[in-house]
Amino acid sequence: MMADLDYYELLEVERTADDKTIKTSYRRLAMQCHPDKNPGCADSEAKFKAISEAYDCLKDPQKRAAYDRYGKAAFEQGGFGGGRGGPQGFEGFSDIFENIFGEFMGGRGGGGRQSVRRGADLRYDMEITLEEAFAGKQASITVDVAVQCDTCHGAGAKPGTSAKTCGTCGGHGKVRSQQGFFMVERACPACHGAGQVISDPCVDCHGEGRVERTKTLDVRIPAGVDEGTRIRLTGEGEAGAQGAPPGDLYIFLHIKAHELFERDGTTLFARAPISFTTAALGGAIEVPGLDRKVHEIRIPSGIQSGKQIRQRGAGMPVLNGRGHGDLVIQIDVETPTRLTAKQKELLEQFRETETGEECPQSSGFFSRLKGMFGD
């Protein structure tokens, strides 16, 4: 019979033919045996139906892959037609697709109970000081979390009893229903995807396999952490239901604002006001660092406000690495506001000796103004 022929033979193409070749051959054959061109010819009508069926399969990459491996058995009974248990033990097209692509797509292969989902991951926000971020620290945190039930050891069933295979899904954890041309697969409503039901639940966890507890955990915060750094505590999240593995706990770090330093990566920034005499004559200032050392910053004579001086290696440590960043000091020249009579007298004497060359920027500015508007 025409319907029993191989799809590739029906379309007169090789099994290695590409999509374009298959489409071209189908159109040619369809025009030749279309019922409108062959009125009353039963053979032409049968061939037209057969090549249409073949093309409908081979034009779809997923259907073609299943056909290449299993032939028409991929679409019989458990495939696109009806119940479970196809002629060769297949469980429908979705199972066949998982057989072919499961290891790449995370499928479950040839079927069976749905894998139990691990517990949920948790988030904990922790605020630390910049000094603690610099040096690192050991901290203890307290979290309320679902942990494995000690009474039933996570099984969910009363001690001495056990869960039974779900009668609705047969232990697969999934049920299927026909919706038009497609089979729709969803979690079993009776066992919620577990594949098992507990008729005699544990009195402490009520069948969940987990209970709420307050837990204290020790956390090591490494030196050099920054705002938003995430620390993962494996297996310290929510316990999974009915013995499933736990999730993880993620600690997100937040750095408190510092009264002296600002941070950009491993670089620390600070502003240092200096007297106008130090700015004019030069000198040194002492700045305490986060490393608990006093850093001497040399001030060159004639320094201006806004000038930055870099102290190598006095910044934040490199996270999980070696070395430190830099400490950058921005100079702010402060004009005195409370002068004694003697200081005013000395400044007046200094002003009388000024020639304009002492402050070339200001003298140059006023000279340009004079050039623009005249004397």
From TrEMBL:
InterPro entries: DnaJ, DnaJ_C, DnaJ_domain, DnaJ_domain_CS, HSP40/DnaJ_pept-bd, HSP_DnaJ_Cys-rich_dom, HSP_DnaJ_Cys-rich_dom_sf, J_dom_sf. Keywords: Chaperone, Cytoplasm, DNA replication, Metal-binding, Repeat, Stress response, Zinc, Zinc-finger. It is found in: Cytoplasm. Zn(2+) 2 binds at C166, C169, C188, C191. Its main location: cytoplasm. Residues 6-71 form the J domain. A zinc finger (CR-type) spans 136-214. GO terms for molecular function: ATP binding; heat shock protein binding; unfolded protein binding; zinc ion binding. The keyword Ribonucleoprotein does not apply. One of its GO terms (cellular component) is cytoplasm. Gene3D superfamilies: DnaJ domain, Heat shock protein DnaJ, cysteine-rich domain, Urease metallochaperone UreE, N-terminal domain. One of its GO terms (biological process) is protein refolding. It holds the Pfam family DnaJ. The keyword Amino-acid biosynthesis does not apply. Residues 136-214 form the CR-type domain. Its cofactor is Zn(2+). SMART domains: DnaJ (SM00271). CXXCXGXG motif repeats lie at residues 149-156, 166-173, 188-195, 202-209. CDD domains: DnaJ, DnaJ_C, DnaJ_zf. Zn(2+) 1 binds at C149, C152, C202, C205. Homodimer. Belongs to the DnaJ family. The J domain is necessary and sufficient to stimulate DnaK ATPase activity. Zinc center 1 plays an important role in the autonomous, DnaK-independent chaperone activity of DnaJ. Zinc center 2 is essential for interaction with DnaK and for DnaJ activity. Participates actively in the response to hyperosmotic and heat shock by preventing the aggregation of stress-denatured proteins and by disaggregating proteins, also in an autonomous, DnaK-independent fashion. Unfolded proteins bind initially to DnaJ; upon interaction with the DnaJ-bound protein, DnaK hydrolyzes its bound ATP, resulting in the formation of a stable complex. GrpE releases ADP from DnaK; ATP binding to DnaK triggers the release of the substrate protein, thus completing the reaction cycle. This is Chaperone protein DnaJ. The lineage of its organism: Bacteria, Pseudomonadati, Pseudomonadota, Alphaproteobacteria, Sphingomonadales.
